[in-house]
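Repro:
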Amino acid sequence: MSSLPSAHLPSGWAPVPGSLAGRVVIVTGATGGLGGETAKAAVLAGATVVITGRKVRALEKRYDELVALGGSEPVIHPLDLESATPADYAALAEGIENEFGRLDGIVHAAAHFNELTPIAMHKPDDWLRAMQVNVSAPFALTQACMPLLTKADDSAVIFVLDDPELLSRAHWGGYGVSKAAVERMAAVLHAENGRNAMRVHAVLPAPMRTALRRAAYYGENTLERPLPTASADAIVYLLSRAGAEARGTVLDLRHTH
């Protein structure tokens, strides 16, 4: 059972151009499906987006796609969440403060998922990788950026969840356990920051066409699933001032039409 209440997108809500104008936002996993779509949606909404990921060439390709949208120029900050140290996160926060003097949001879109496997067969290093990328990295990045986020007059930290009913079934292993931990991290962070400028959100996307989904559902034609665009638009809602009414909730996108 979730320790955060559920919320839904306001009916008829659509992305508003300029709703993130002047805002600076970090998107992790920006070379992936959800991270990439979120970075695009944020640029279209007027944000300056700091894209992180571990593959520089893939980040450069994403950068070119974002520049072509014609908004604020994005910033590339390579970051390997598997091996990053507290000093790396501090350097990212410091770089953003020096360049922009502000930070208005973080979207934790990066995720590690290897394969469905029973716990008896789970490779220990893969378990540790899931915990590192999915839990410890969002903690360390958020903590390093909190001085900037709490200085903003309105900011948002957004954690991405996955279907809790599904993830408590057999074989979801380290990924399933890590996503439960992420939900609890969001709850604790909200309890500590429920009244200040930094809002805490969780989002539960509908099934979408991503590499992670393809790895997890061999029997499914993932191409029949929609691209992560609708989920990315919903994340922009949370990053914008309008998202304030959903603070401290799980924005459930599974049943929106």
